[in-house]
Amino acid sequence: MNQPKNLTCQDDGVILASQSPRRKQLLEWAEIPFEIIVHTTDESYPAEFAVEEVAIHIAKNKALAVQAFIKENAATANKKIIIAADTIVVLGNEIIGKPTDRQDAIEILQKLSGKRHKVITGVVILDAEKEVAFADTTEVEFHSLTTEQIIFYVDKYSPYDKAGAYAIQEWIGVVGIHSIKGDFYNVMGLPVSKVVQVLQQW
Questions:
Q1: Given pLDDT bands bounded at 50, 70 and 90, which one contains residue 141?
Q2: Catalytic (active-site) positions
Q3: Whose CA is closest to 111, among 87, 90, 132?
Q4: What architecture is domain 14-197?
Q5: What is the phi-psi region of residue 26: left when phi exceeds 0, alpha when psi lies from -120 to 50, beta otherwise?
């Protein structure tokens, strides 16, 4: 497959500001050449923010941290396009983050069992001259999960680095998802088709 035109060249490459293996995989599937640079950031947010604003706020902080880092360390920093994303799970009005331990993961999945929740990914794409920010929302509904199913999933797949304590592309998504409305890949961590559209217009 030919590389998409007008996305990158040797000096003005794309940087993914994320350690997520799912986001890495999605950009690879989209045939976008990129490198990964991650810088630790504060993931707190103002309490009055709407849920979409929360995801964008955290993503922007990730992007700006990497931009500041490469400005100090790369001569071609101004030509770099940085992609940052943050995914949150929302049940009712509650934002559900990553589980702190095994018991927390079990309790989170018990909350989600038999219910519909939202998965919101905030994306910020920026370079030295401009910035595009957006949030994409997918609705996911679980079947009612048994305690045995939840424990099996948590113990085998250790979903401690995932918002909502699950990955839709794993076993629990195959057997436990009743319906999905929206972008499947958004639930994986990146609405990659929208990202490609932005890059094509950059």
A1: very high
A2: 86
A3: 90
A4: Alpha-Beta Complex (3.90)
A5: alpha
